Amino acid sequence: MKREAGVLAAIDEMAHALPFTLKGLDADNGSEFINLHLADYCK
After folding, report:
1. Cα 17 off chain centre by
2. Residues 6 or more apart whose Cβ sits within 8 Å of residue 15
3. What is the Cα–Cα distance from 15 to 31, expressed in whole angstroms?
4. In this model, does residue 6 exceed pLDDT 90?
5. Using CA atoms, how far apart are residues 43 and 37, in angstroms rounded to an integer?
6. CA distances from 19 to 7, 11, 27, 31, 35 (A)
């Protein structure tokens, strides 16, 4: 759970720092990177 929260927090921080709206997220590491928490975040 800590790692999931850390990943989501990092993505959220990065998204807020971008000078444009983040419209997508590509996970080149395979589907094992996409968990329910990340899928919910992307919705």
Report:
1. 14
2. 22
3. 21
4. no
5. 10
6. 20, 14, 21, 28, 27
Q: Which helix (H) or strand (E) holds 7?
A: helix 2-17
Number of domains in the chain: 1
- What the block records as the tokens of 23 is 């419209």
Q: How many residues does the chain have?
A: 43
Q: What pLDDT is stored for residue 42 in this prediction?
A: 81
Containing domain of residue 23, as a range?
Answer: 2-42
Span 7-27, pLDDT tens digits: 889 989 999 999 999 888 877
Place of tokens 């899928």: 39
| CB 11 within 8 Å of CB 25 | yes
